[in-house]
Amino acid sequence: MQRGQQLPAQGNELVEQTGLPQNLVSYHLGLLRQAGLVQVHKSDADARVTYYGVNLAALTAHYAQLGAALAIPSDQGRQDLSALTVVVLCRANSARSQMTEGWLRALSAGRLIVRSAGTHPAALHPLAEQVMAEVDIDIGHHHAKHVDVLAQLRPDVVVTVCDIAREECPVWPQATTQLHWSIPDPAAVTDPEAQLAAFRVARDELRLRVEGLLALLATPSRLG
User: What pTM value is reported for the model?
Assistant: First the structure.
């Protein structure tokens, strides 16, 4: 992972990262969308901007099928993560970043140092606490913090989980890995039943992304 490389990404960023012509990038994005491997999301910061991201659930399913067909053993081992610090940033630090913090702690068995914060912190959303409790992760003791509180940290990984935070939050140049996860804001859904479903979708999407991040961190040669 190159420093500063981010996925999901905007179309012009993909052109820049790949060095391919715009029409060729658009063509391949179309094929990947048809295959269900790419998700499209309008930016929360500017609805005119489109983010393209990997459909991790579909990709994981494809890898599992290939692994079974080829009898490839899965590597579940984790190297020592205790020396690594991960910072998760969001606008309100009330839902997506808090759920991410919960997943990172739980799935790393507490070996990572994890902190989350927001540019405009608000109270922990009760549905974030509820849906994480459904998977036996207690985040009820979490509280929202302003990003300035973390200014003295020297994180190894910085993750933004909302488009607004990506635009507003400072960048830690010393962070080996900087990632952007464009996760739609479940709190923006107004219908109560649909909102609960949106929180569950965000929770499950974040778990997949955290699992991928832990696999990345467990292989130091892939960082930098």
Answer: 0.67
Identify whether residues 147 and 174 lie together within a single domain: yes
- State the SS3 of the chain: CCCCCCCCEEHHHHHHHHCCCHHHHHHHHHHHHHCCCEEEEECCCCCCCEEEEECHHHHHHHHHHHHHHHCCCCCCCCCCCCCCEEEEEECCCCCHHHHHHHHHHHHCCCCCEEEEEECCCCCCCHHHHHHHHCCCCCCCCCCCCEHHHHCCCCCCEEEECCHHHHHHCCCCCCCCEEEECCCCCHHHCCCHHHHHHHHHHHHHHHHHHHHHHHHHHCCHHHCC
pLDDT digits (tens, 9 = 90+) for 131-142: 999 999 999 999
Does 92 share its domain with 202? Answer: yes
Residues 66, 91, single domain; the answer is: no
Same domain membership, residue 58 and residue 139: no
Residues with a catalytic annotation lie at 90, 162, 169
Q: Is 156 exposed, middle or buried (0-12, 13-18, 19+ CB in 10 A)?
A: buried
> Which of the pair, 15 or 101, is modelled with greater confidence?
101
**What pLDDT digit, counting tens, does each position of 14-67 carry?**
777 777 777 777 767 776 777 677 777 677 776 677 777 777 776 666 665 554
Lookup: tokens for 204: 């499950």
In this prediction, residue 51 carries a pLDDT of 76
Instruction: Answer yes or no: is 4 within a domain.
Output: no
